[in-house]
Specification:
Helices cover 28% and strands 31% of the residues. The strands form two sheets. Strands 1, 2, 3, 7, 8, 9, 10, 11, 12, 18, 21 and 22 form a twelve-stranded antiparallel sheet that branches. Strands 4, 5, 6, 13, 14, 15, 16, 17, 19 and 20 form a ten-stranded antiparallel sheet that branches. It starts with a strand and ends with a helix. It is built from ten helices and 22 strands.
């Protein structure tokens, strides 16, 4: 497939994507945290030639076959995603990779994945201020025409909304944290991630895309995204990269473990950051996940290539401080992006160690399937490159129902009260966005 490159006038990706938000499937991968080195590129994809929707069977064989058939080198000097697949993968796809108990039934339910196959992509380089539509000629021209016809984007409406309800009262969630601690002390696991879910009926007049715009304003993340399609929508402001691999096979993952809220008083904000970097509990939690991700990457990377160039560094976002590590490697010649995805899915930072036993405990103690939460979203390109985020800080929307999850890694030193409070810190910006609170 010959590729056409069309220049696109400088524009805000969010503004020109807005008319596409009600498409049968459209994807905005939005590097919203400007100034962050991972926020260089944004992408818009629409009008897919095919849609892969998870229906209870593994999507990975089909995904691998289609990518092999589409294989196409990228054009140098342009953003790396120039066509291929974009969308999201549910956490619950893990049952196709390991033997796991079924999650408890609950509503709303979501497909196992929603991935569009795109012959054209709009790509934005925030560093240079340039933008292009790249792809098969007819598809590229059609996408550019749609984007250039976008009207001005109205201001965000902050009318009062609704309060999401937790599935569990505080005391019951804290009791489940204590159960995880018991498993750890009994030697079952070293760590397990436990989440709680909040649900709400979307208030009248609130669209999924308006909710995303509110979330983006309150807590912009380097891996923000909006995906509409197959009767549901995903709004995300994640700070965490799950997996990236370039066309030469260089792999990176950036697991996050350790959290403190930001504070409007600069002195108190520095205290919270110092408390996090000095926390033995948070550093131990981060180290365990670093080792888990190193093991996952070693399944598909060349011997001796897997290493950790960054360990437990402080990274600060508008609403939160985190400890972040980096694990890198180089794919073996016989492995590709889909092999890497299967080797590491779902992300270790939101499961635990050992991963399979932690996932069994998650299925036992959580009240609902995670759905898109703690899965992944992003793109897989025709040249074999890939960039996926961990689906945290997300609101999943279906049939007027909104599901929001938040959790944390439980260790032997975990305090159930503090763990509950940490979930509120993480979910806070999304809950405020749903409630129509501008700050």
């Amino acid at each position: 497939m010959a590729r056409t490159v069309l220049e696109l006038p400088a524009a805000d990706p969010v503004a020109i994507f807005a008319p596409l938000a009600d498409d049968p499937l459209a994807v905005l991968l939005d590097s919203a945290a400007q100034g962050d080195p991972r926020s260089r590129y944004s992408y818009i994809a629409a009008d897919p030639v095919d849609v892969l929707v998870g229906d209870g069977t593994s999507p990975f064989p089909h995904l691998a076959a289609r990518l092999a058939a589409r294989h196409h080198a990228t054009i140098d000097g342009l953003p790396p995603f120039q066509g291929g697949f974009a969308g999201w993968l549910s956490y619950d796809l893990g049952r196709h990779l390991e033997r796991l108990p079924p999650p408890p039934p609950a509503q709303p339910r979501f497909p196992d994945c929603v991935l569009g196959e795109f012959n054209a992509v709009a790509a934005f380089d925030h560093q240079s201020g340039q933008a292009w539509v790249i792809g098969e000629d007819k598809a590229a021209r059609h996408l550019r025409d749609r984007l250039m016809a976008a009207p001005a984007l109205p201001p965000i409406k902050w009318r009062p909304g609704t309060q999401a309800r937790p599935d569990l009262p505080r005391q019951q969630y804290q009791m489940r944290v204590a159960q995880v601690v018991d498993y750890i002390r009994a030697g079952d696991v070293f760590q397990a991630n436990l989440a709680q879910r909040f649900t709400a009926t979307a208030p009248a007049g609130l669209s999924p895309f308006t909710l995303y715009r509110r979330m983006r304003q309150l807590a912009p993340g380097p891996f923000s995204a909006f995906v509409a399609g197959s009767g549901c929508a995903l709004a995300a402001v994640s700070p965490e990269r799950f997996l990236s691999v370039d066309s030469h096979g260089q792999v990176e993952t950036r697991p996050i473990k350790g959290t403190r809220p930001r504070h409007s008083d600069s002195a108190r904000d520095r205290e919270l950051a110092a408390e996090l970097t000095g926390s033995a509990k948070d550093r131990a939690e981060n180290l365990m996940i670093l080792d888990l991700m190193r093991n996952d990457l070693s399944r598909v990377c060349a011997v001796g290539s897997v290493h950790a160039p960054q360990r437990m560094a402080l990274e600060s976002f508008p609403a939160i401080h985190h400890l972040v590590s980096v694990v890198a490697g180089r794919l073996r010649p016989d492995q590709n992006a889909v092999d890497l995805l299967q080797a590491a899915f779902p992300p270790g930072s939101i499961t635990g160690a050992p991963k399979i036993r932690a996932m069994e405990i998650i299925a036992q103690l959580e009240t609902a399937p995670r759905g898109p939460y703690c899965g992944a979203y992003g793109w897989i390109g025709d040249d074999g490159a890939m960039d996926l985020a961990v689906a945290i800080r997300v609101a999943a929307w279906r049939d007027g129902q909104v599901a929001i999850h938040a959790g944390g890694g439980i260790t032997a030193d975990s305090d159930p009260v503090a763990e509950y409070d940490e979930t509120l810190v993480k979910a806070g910006p999304i809950l405020r966005a749903l409630a129509g609170e501008a700050s």
